[in-house]
Amino acid sequence: MNSLHEHALRLSCQHRLLESELVKVLGEIESLKLHRTLGFSSVFSYTVSALGLSEPVAYTLITVARKARELGALSKAISTQKLSVNRASRIVAALTRENANELIAFAATHTQRETDQEVARLSDRRTERFENLRVPAEVLELLKKAQGLMASRKKRNLKFDETLKLVLEEFLNRHEPVRKAERARKRAEKTKAKTTDKISAENSVCTKPDATPKAKTARIPVTALTRHIVNIRDQARCTFVDYAGHRCTNDRWLHAHHRIPVSRGGSNEPANLVTLCSFHQDLVHQLSLPIEGQVNWIREPGRAYSH
Ligand SMILES: [Zn+2]
């Protein structure tokens, strides 16, 4: 009984050793294109036909062999038998140069189920990136634009699925008949309740403090109509132009900045408003410079700015 167990142990050990050797040899055969000289178009058909291994086994060995050639960490883990070939085959899809050590260590110390879950988690995270989506460039462009707008509205960066959910919600709110009716009803109630100008929630108004507290309380909100005019004129993009004449490309975290501060009698007229991203609005405030005309004043270094 005991000797039978020992025999099984020995065989299993040999099996793992042979498997790891086979991965290594198949990798070498493929890199030398030896299968071609033997008359096989692929290393896969060579493994199945010449070596007599089953298709799933051939697939597993070749997939692992290819990844092991690419990543030294995997090759080492297999040759030292830290990782079985089968377990290695479960992680190759998610394995990258960056996560190799971490993922291999994870797979070596966790169950197959836990490993599969970890791979699924990593793959999810990878497909979260817009760039990994298989969609036409113009759709990608639209998604990115929507992501930027949603980020400004929510005041944080949104993941792909969050963005898509919000976009779809908004589409349904706008076009689904019941929601549409509900929206109209609420709007009617609101109009009844207050007749003041609606403030667009999309961009925040400049509330940075060159304004005294007194001026703050006297501040009149920028109307939605004015915002529309400013957004069309500035193409809803930061208008800051740097020394080299490049305009800031930021289309999120935007503010309607008052050229002449409200505290100094600046109005809410479109001519007095300019679109700036948070970063450039901060910069403008920090420098406390008067902005006249276009926001390309900073193009002239060394100019003495005074009130
Ligand atoms: Zn900017």
Summarize this structure briefly:
By secondary structure, the protein is mostly helical. It is 58% helix and 4% strand.
Notes on the structure:
- With 307 residues, the protein is mainly α.
- It has three domains: 2-127, no CATH class; 135-193, no CATH class; 204-299, DNA Binding (I), subunit A (Orthogonal Bundle).
- It contains 14 helices and three strands.
- It has helices spanning 2-32, 34-37, 43-50, 55-70, 72-79, 85-91, 100-109, 112-127, 137-154, 160-175, 177-193, 213-218, 224-234, 278-287, and strands at residues 204-205, 254-258, 273-277.
- It has a three-stranded mixed sheet.
- Helix 1 packs across helix 4 (55-70), helix 3 packs across helix 4 and helix 9 (137-154) crosses helix 10.
- Mean pLDDT is 79; it is low at 208-216 and 290-307.
Total separate domains: 3
Low-confidence stretches: 208-216, 290-307
The value of Rg in angstroms is: 32 Å
Name the strands of the widest sheet in spatial order.
1-2-3
What is the subunit arrangement here? single chain
Helix content: 55-70%
Helical/strand content category:
mainly alpha
Shape: elongated
Largest sheet: 3 strands, mixed
Question: Strand-and-helix sequence, N→C?
Answer: HHHHHHHHHHHEHHEEH
Number of helices: 14
Q: Let me know the number of strands.
A: 3
Give the SSE map.
Elements: H1 2-32, H2 34-37, H3 43-50, H4 55-70, H5 72-79, H6 85-91, H7 100-109, H8 112-127, H9 137-154, H10 160-175, H11 177-193, E1 204-205, H12 213-218, H13 224-234, E2 254-258, E3 273-277, H14 278-287
Parallel strand pairs: 1-2
Antiparallel strand pairs: 2-3
Helix pairs in contact: 1-4, 3-4, 4-5, 4-6, 9-10, 10-11
Bound molecules: zinc ion.
Zinc ion binds at residues 238, 240, 248, 250, 276-277, 279-280.
